[in-house]
Amino acid sequence: MKHDVQKTRKKRILIIICFIFAVTLFIPTPFYLFQPGSVEELSSKVTVEEGEKAGQGHLYLTTVLSVKASNIYYLAYGLLAPHTDIQRSHVVKGDMSEKEYNRWLAYLMKSSQENAITAGLKAAGEEVQVVPKGMIVRNFSKNSKAKGIIEAGDLILKVDGRTIKATEDLLGYFKGKKAGEKVNVVFSRDGKKKEEQVELVLLPGKKSQPGIGVGLEEYVEVKPARKVNIQAGEIGGPSAGLMFSLEIYRQVTGEDITKGYKVAGTGTIDKAGNVGQIGGIAEKIAAVDKAGMDIFFCPMDVLQGDTNEKEVKAEVEKYGYDVKIVPVKTLDEAVNYLDRLPPKS
């Protein structure tokens, strides 16, 4: 009899444990995990028309593995796993929905590729035509009436029938308007055109300036003299810009700029070839060291608040990574560094 009672008690405890596990498995957490991702060779991803891919060494982009901690077990894993950064969702994507955030990352990658094509070809002495196509919605002011009508990642094409190619086009037109008035906005979302009415509000910090209360970035199309095809796959965000532009430069010039070295790197790029700060650099240098890279280009700390250079050097010192760290602030600096390298013995 006593044995049966103990057996029943064990079954109840097991059922309770299974129930708790099942319930907590579906309780989401407001966190993302960031871990070292892949180090991927670029000549297989970038093809320049009539370009050359020969050379002893290779250029590599670096990635960060981003995982939403969908339950407390993912979060617990993140707390225990090495080289893992944990951030709250609002720090990662603000008030964007998951769909908006993914659309925004896709835009950033496309914009990064356009910038890389422009910077890489110009560095190689070629002309590139840049055609403004509209304005991409980045975020919303707190008082914006557009949220829920327009989404982050939407491409604004026209307002009241006027083509919009720059922020000045909007501000200039809205000067003759008042808060509370409505305007017709034509925009594109996931390749489909939409038209909606949006109420104007007073822009934060500009008491007399009405607007739709959205942060915008210029969206352009580049028309190079030769075709450049970039296959990024599932990689999102702008941080591969520097390395894309280096690979484009390499194929156009036909120079073996790597001199036999394995050269990885990270950093955003603009059309003028300026390198910008990125996120997840601690995770990237861990992946780079594991992959056996010789050289790692990182964004130089130029402005107050820049941290990439300091952070990556601290990681190298902390973990004893055997990688040459080269901070750069422009594409030209990266090219010049490689030009001065002796061939790898």
List keywords for this structure.
single chain, Ribosomal Protein S5, domain 2, Pdz3 Domain, 2 domains, six-stranded mixed beta sheet, 9 helices, EC 3.4.21.53
Oligomer: single chain
Overall pLDDT score: 88
Order of helices and strands: HEEEHEHHEEEHEEEEEEHEEEHEHEH
CATH topology of the largest domain: Ribosomal Protein S5, domain 2
Radius of gyration: 25 Å
What is the helix fraction of residues, given as a range?
A: 25-40%
Low-confidence stretches: none
Largest sheet: 6 strands, mixed
Count of structural domains: 2
Q: Kindly report how far apart the N and C termini lie.
A: 80 Å
Structural class: alpha+beta
What is the CATH class designation of the largest domain? Alpha Beta
**Which strand order spans the largest sheet, edge to edge or round the barrel?**
4-1-3-14-17-18
Number of strands: 18
Topology:
Elements: H1 2-25, E1 31-41, E2 46-48, E3 58-68, H2 72-80, E4 85-88, H3 89-93, H4 98-123, E5 128-140, E6 155-159, E7 162-163, H5 167-174, E8 182-189, E9 192-199, E10 201-202, E11 210-211, E12 214-224, E13 228-230, H6 241-253, E14 262-265, E15 268-269, E16 275-276, H7 281-290, E17 295-299, H8 308-319, E18 324-328, H9 331-340
Parallel strand pairs: 3-14, 14-17, 17-18
Antiparallel strand pairs: 1-3, 1-4, 2-13, 5-6, 5-12, 6-7, 6-8, 8-9, 10-11, 15-16
Keywords: Hydrolase, Membrane, Protease, Serine protease, Transmembrane, Transmembrane helix
Protein name: endopeptidase La
Domain Lon proteolytic: 232-341
